[in-house]
Amino acid sequence: MIDVRVCEVGLRDGLQLVSTFFPTEEKLAWIRAEAAAGVREIEVTSFVPPKLVPQFVDAEEVVREALKIPGLSVMALIPNMKGAERGFALGVHQLDFVMSVSRTHNLKNVRRSREESIADLKRIVEARNAQPEGRRPKIVGGLSTALGCSYEGRIPVDDVRRYAAQLAACGVDEILVADTVGYGDPAQVRAVFKAVMAEVGRIPVGAHFHDTRGTGLANVAAALDLGVRRFDASLAGLGGCPFAPGASGNIVMDDLVFMLDSMGLRTGIDIEKLTCVRAILEKNLPGTELHGAVAKAGLPTQYVKADARAG
Ligand code: COA
Ligand code: ZN
After folding, report:
1. Which ligand gives the minimal distance to the CA of 107?
2. Residue 246 pLDDT > 90, yes or no?
3. Band of the pLDDT at 289, cuts 50, 70, 90?
4. Nearest-CA neighbor of 232 among 210, 212, 215?
5. Which of 74, 225, 201, 51 is nearest to 137 (CA)?
6. Probe target for ligand 1 pocket from 111, 120, 149, 238, with the most ligand atoms within 8 Å of CB
7. Is residue 241 flagged as an active site residue?
8. Quick one: average pLDDT of 153-162?
9. Which superfamily, per CATH, for 5-310?
10. Where are the alpha helices (DSSP H) in 137-183?
């Protein structure tokens, strides 16, 4: 039983900011070790032009191998139709379409207007629906910079609501509200998620927070109170958009799993096995700062996991 879905995005959001190539076999070791720790959803790569982000030159190989792991839902980021086609060809399980609520960030990041992004998404959902049965990936509509933008500052709640409505109208299976540059606070999270959830009805709404200014887990707590049950995070808090000045790490996955588990919310993830996976990052990212309070402090004395309490 799972109460809250936790999705690893470090292989995409984390590695896109790392200039040295993380070897393909090591990416796969990371994916396999997390799957063995109980992580069920991993964004394993990004279908963007390798010329733009060389880290993902091995996207096809990573997806092909990740798809062999039993029980794992394999996800990839896409900015356009070309990315979606690469995903369809491989039989990926989930595609995370990215657009920004901020006009400027959308232009800088995906080089098109928000209207063009929406039009592209509509075509992508239609193309997905035309795939043979069993090969129709779930499409997640991501709204980047929904809680602030390093070009435009504060983003009006009504803009987020409006674009969420447009994603819903395109036929996405899920909406992901993202605080790309870590400007959000719990009061703002309540306002934005409330508006989005009221707008899109039964479509599940997930949260993608960055901990750039230390508000990451507080924002999770606020979203949980509203009923959000799907969170992105990255092991050791890697992360950040290379096309958003000042962006830094996602919320620390190990700390998020500990907080949820401690609250009695089951994630299916074994926190001790998860923290051991950090060794793969330590080995491959010398000089990159790794974050994590639980990794530093250890579990509380006589800690009882949520699974054991639920039983
Ligand atoms: N995968 C691989 N190649 C792609 C591609 C994709 N998803 N999309 C476009 N291309 C190729 C095209 O085929 C074309 O190749 P050619 O020069 O050999 O003909 C070239 O890239 C340019 O295509 P175009 O459609 O003109 O793209 P663009 O230059 O306008 O860039 C995006 C648009 C969306 C592809 C680019 O801005 C992008 O990938 N942005 C995402 C950036 C990112 O990773 N941000 C962080 C995640 S939030
Ligand atoms: Zn992000």
Report:
1. 1
2. no
3. confident
4. 210
5. 74
6. 111
7. yes
8. 98
9. Aldolase class I (3.20.20.70)
10. 157-170
